[in-house]
Design a protein that fits this description.
This protein is α/β, with parallel strands linked by helices. Helices cover 34% and strands 15% of the residues. The protein starts with 10 loop residues before the first helix and ends with a strand.
């Protein structure tokens, strides 16, 4: 056994090449309005992330509306681009019914994932749609 091998490593393992990653990184761009979304798509983004009027950390910035979701997701998906909604605020107990309604709209319009901060929102998403993708926000 040479100095590069451990007791659980065989000579065959040491000669084996490292696995090659088969996925490229995703180019994810922020988009607060239609102009930004179009620019991201035209410049090669694989996905965009955006907030809506409620439950996102940049509520005072430009945001899409719940009413924009069907047209936005259709625009993105026609071009092979994913759309992620930022749902990255803490949700209080008195806001849960509103959050649930919002999440139902997000899921039903074909949003590809939610970017979530609150564990309670993650649990709510799992109850509404067990396979809906959730990404973590810090």
């Amino acid at each position: 056994m040479n100095s590069r091998q451990t007791s659980s490593t065989t000579a065959t393992d040491a000669a084996r090449p490292a696995p090659v990653l088969s996925r490229l990184p995703e180019l994810l761009a922020p988009a607060g309005d239609w102009e930004c979304a179009r620019a991201a798509v035209e410049n090669g983004a694989d996905a965009i992330y955006f907030g809506l009027e409620k439950f996102n950390a940049r509520m005072r910035a430009k945001n899409f509306t719940e009413a924009d979701l069907p047209a936005l997701m259709e625009f993105l998906h026609r071009r092979g681009v994913k759309g992620y909604v930022t749902f990255n605020t803490l949700v209080f107990a008195n806001e849960m019914a509103d959050a649930e309604q919002y999440l139902r709209a997000i899921i039903s319009t074909g949003v590809d994932a939610a970017i979530v901060q609150d564990i309670g929102v993650c649990r709510l998403i799992r109850r509404l749609s067990p396979d809906f993708p959730i990404h973590a926000s810090t």
